[in-house]
Design a protein that fits this description.
The chain has helices at residues 2-64, 75-81, 84-91; strands spanning 110-114, 120-123, 127-128, 136-137, 146-151, 158-163, 169-174, 184-187, 192-196. With 200 residues, it is an alpha+beta fold. It folds into two domains: 1-64; 75-196, Peptide methionine sulfoxide reductase (Metal Binding Protein, Guanine Nucleotide Exchange Factor, Chain A, Beta Complex), CATH 2.170.150. A six-stranded antiparallel beta sheet has the order 3-4-8-7-6-5. A hairpin with a 7-residue loop joins strand 3 and strand 4 (136-137). It is globular, with a radius of gyration of 30 Å.
């Protein structure tokens, strides 16, 4: 009887011991997790906040410039204030997919400005349905708002449209638009922002 009780006590002690080890492991795991979270908060976060602060400074600098002044930033500075999609189009002359962009089928009234610098480019009153999948306009607000440059990339001869203020790529212009200009400024939605108004 005494021997059975001793064995039972030992077995209970072994179980309790295993539970203590398991709890200790859990406790260590919680400590490691807590330390990792602390690292992210105290070390990684300041870098992100620093990046945000630098981006805010760059945006403020661009906003403070008179609209008549050119915007000149390095690619690194543009990368800080533009989304990857915007950087790809505006700074690397990329093209977004047709029919899967914000403004191709938009009918709101307003002024379309450069997404990089805020330069007023096109009015909604000159926007038309081109069935291309990209927002299309038959003329800019003023000719000095844009630059039209020869583009021979990809074995094609086209005319590229850029923002005259910051040099960002907007799209291309073609000679198949409606009257009165018969031009089609075929632009990327990601290169534009719409400022809604009651006119235009």
């Amino acid at each position: 009887m005494g021997r059975a009780k001793t064995q039972k006590t030992r077995a209970k002690g072994a179980v309790n011991g295993r539970r203590m080890v398991y709890r200790l492991k859990l406790h260590k795991g919680a400590i490691v997790t807590a330390l990792w979270l602390l690292y992210l908060c105290c070390i990684a976060a300041p870098k992100a906040f620093g990046d945000d602060a630098e981006a805010a400074r760059i945006r403020a600098r661009v906003k403070a410039l008179p609209m008549t002044e050119k915007v000149r930033l390095t690619n690194d500075q543009w990368r800080r204030i533009l989304t990857p999609a915007q950087f790809f189009v505006l700074r690397e002359a990329g093209t977004e997919p047709p029919f899967k962009n914000e403004y191709w089928n938009n009918h709101e009234k307003g002024i379309y400005v450069c997404a990089a610098c805020g330069n007023e480019l096109f009015g909604s009153n000159t926007k038309f349905e081109s069935d291309t999948g990209w927002p299309s306009f038959y003329q800019p607000l003023a000719q000095d708002k844009i630059l039209v440059l020869a583009d021979n990339t990809g074995g094609m001869r086209r005319e590229e449209v850029r923002c005259a203020r910051c040099g960002s790529h907007l799209g291309h212009v073609f000679n198949d638009g409606p009257a009165p200009t018969h031009l089609r400024y075929c632009l990327n939605s990601v290169s534009l922002k719409l400022k809604t108004t009651k006119e235009h």
